[in-house]
Design goal:
Blueprint lengths: L1 E5 L11 H15 L3 E7 L2 H4 L3 E8 L17 E6 L7 E5 L1 H4 L17 H15 L11 E5 L6 H10 L6 E6 L7 E3 L19 E2 L2 E3 H8 L2 E4 L2 H6 L3 H4 L3 H6 L4 E3 L27 H13 L10 E8 L8 H10 L3 E8 L1 H13 L4 E5 L3 H10 L2 E4 L9 H7 L3 E5 L2 H6 L5 H6 L5 E3 L4 H15 L3 H11 L4 H18 L11
Parallel strand pairs: 1-2, 1-6, 2-5, 6-7, 7-11, 11-12, 13-14, 13-16, 14-15, 16-17, 17-18
Antiparallel strand pairs: 3-4, 4-5, 8-10, 9-10
Helix pairs in contact: 1-19, 4-5, 5-6, 10-13, 11-17
């Protein structure tokens, strides 16, 4: 099975969130199971500075559109190369006018979306669809796996090729976060080269705008998301962000596959970013990690303090607007908070003020640093993930492996991966963390109180070790994706289909 995997981020070269970790973990796991996987990436500087052994593939200007018009693009070529440490070859979409920019791949220096994001990621979708049509005659995919809205036009382009009678690959689209939809003015649609009938209620139109996310949901052969619970949640109005109706119409092709963890990176027994390694049988190193964290975050050096760690974007989606409301209780009970993240300005300011209000008990570092993230997870006793919604979440999975009990809200992948420390679950030997339901400071506070009470008992280490032994590896996820690819490929009709209209 030949799989083209389209994404915009890839750890360790470019990372703004969990998508980069998924893109680094799933393709090599698929490769290990026998899939012939190639990546397609925008030629951001982080990739072009590292790519090796490139081979020119094609000029996109020469890629025809059988329906009569192609996207309006600046000079754009596709080349094939390798990236250090990445097992799968990578196609790079090289369009300097679109991608040769420093910093964040989506935002300008002013923190706002690049004004030409629609054109940038339409180009990515077009390149993916053209590779599906033999742009590289040496390798034509059986399946195109698209990730998040950045690749959302690919299924529409593939469908347009299919509608003209062209044989096409099957398309699979993974929703990593439905809240980010790639919405643009309907005036930009004409620049994307799709047939006119692809704009409309049964196409890309979304409340007067053109939506990359809706494109993918409307035209993909299969839709996945990153946990079983989130796959059910997005069918409902509270979690569907206006697309739940469409998803309910297509529920027969929607499935949830839980993300995995790359334990070669996230493993306290081998982690090069930790001062002292430790594992499930040697926990003394975690005490060292705790002391190091307290020193680095300006916290009082108290071994008996229960440290709540946060590694997150600072947004209300992550539920972190609740944390300032409970800090007084945490400090009063002898706890500490170590927070690493960046995000909404008002939350950043709130946490900086909290660190000044509770010196030695609340430590805050604004920004993101991979080494600091590993050390917060290793040195904390509890990792907080109180999200309003969470498609999968990786932080709680990292916390489990590092012996840092997750405290999470019962949503999405958090509900699928953390078993609450209720008396019943503790007695059954299944408890791994703390789970609360309502998105309120009161419910969060109650869960934190339960953590304080358990921390005083010998049972803490029993639960800690249980979590460290759990396996959420990418091979299990890859098997599910492999079966999905086979199903989509088998069921794909290569006969002419009519495009969807109004």
């Amino acid at each position: 099975m030949k799989v083209l995997y389209i994404c915009s981020e890839l750890y360790p070269f470019l990372k703004t969130g969990g998508l980069a970790d998924v893109s680094a973990g799933l393709p090599p796991a698929l490769h290990a199971l026998g899939c012939d996987v190639r990546l397609l990436l925008p030629a951001f500087p982080a990739f072009t500075e590292n790519v090796q052994a490139t081979r020119a593939v094609a000029d996109l200007a020469n890629a025809p559109a059988p329906w009569g018009k192609a996207p309006s693009l600046p000079a754009a070529t596709v080349s094939l190369g390798t990236l250090p440490g990445v097992k799968c070859p990578a196609y790079l979409l090289d369009a300097p006018e679109l991608f040769s920019r420093p910093g964040n791949p989506y935002l300008g220096p002013d923190g706002k979306d690049w004004s030409d994001n629609a054109q940038r990621f339409a180009a990515l979708g077009w390149a993916g669809a053209c590779l599906g049509q033999g742009l590289d005659p040496q390798w034509v995919p059986d399946v195109i796996h698209c990730n998040d809205w950045h690749a959302g036009l690919t299924p529409a382009y593939v469908h347009a090729f299919r509608a003209t009678g062209c044989p096409t690959p099957a398309t699979v689209f993974t929703i990593h976060n439905l809240a980010y939809q790639g919405l643009f003015s309907h005036h930009e649609f004409s620049q994307w080269g799709l047939p006119d009938e692809y704009f409309g209620i049964h196409g890309l139109e979304f409340f007067g705008h053109a939506s990359f996310m809706k494109s993918a949901l409307q035209f993909s052969d299969r839709i996945t998301t990153v946990s079983p619970t989130y796959a059910r949640e997005i069918l409902t109005e509270p979690h569907g962000f206006g697309l739940d109706g469409l998803l309910r119409e297509r529920t027969h092709v929607v499935s949830g596959i839980l993300n995995g963890v790359d334990y070669q990176i996230w493993n306290p027994g081998t982690d090069p970013l930790l001062l002292q390694k430790y594992d499930v049988n040697r926990l003394a190193g975690k005490t060292t990690a705790k002391q190091a964290l307290q020193n680095s975050m300006g916290l009082q050096s108290r071994p008996d303090a229960l440290i709540f760690g946060v590694v997150s974007r600072l947004t209300e989606q992550k539920g972190l607007h609740l944390l300032p409301q409970v800090l007084a209780d945490v400090v009063a009970m002898g706890g500490q908070v170590a927070l690493l993240g960046e995000g909404d300005a008002w939350l950043v300011e709130t946490f900086i003020e909290a660190a000044a209000r509770y010196p030695g008990q609340v430590g805050v570092r604004i920004g993101y640093d991979e080494a600091a993230a590993h050390n917060v997870l290793a040195g904390s006793d509890v990792v907080l993930v109180p999200s309003a919604f969470e498609p999968c979440g990786l932080t709680q999975l990292y916390g489990l492996r590092y012996g840092t009990l997750p405290l999470v809200r019962r949503v999405g992948g958090l509900a699928d991966t953390v078993v609450d420390c209720t008396p019943e679950n503790r007695a059954a030997g299944t408890a791994t963390g703390f789970v609360f339901d309502a998105l309120t400071a009161s419910d969060l506070r109650s869960a934190m109180h339960r953590a304080f009470n358990l921390f005083k008992t010998p049972e803490w280490k029993v639960i800690q070790r249980r979590g460290m032994r759990l396996q959420f590896d990418w091979i299990a996820a890859a098997r599910h994706y492999g079966a999905l690819y086979e199903s989509a490929h088998r069921s794909l009709s290569l006969t002419r289909v009519a495009p969807k209209g109004d």
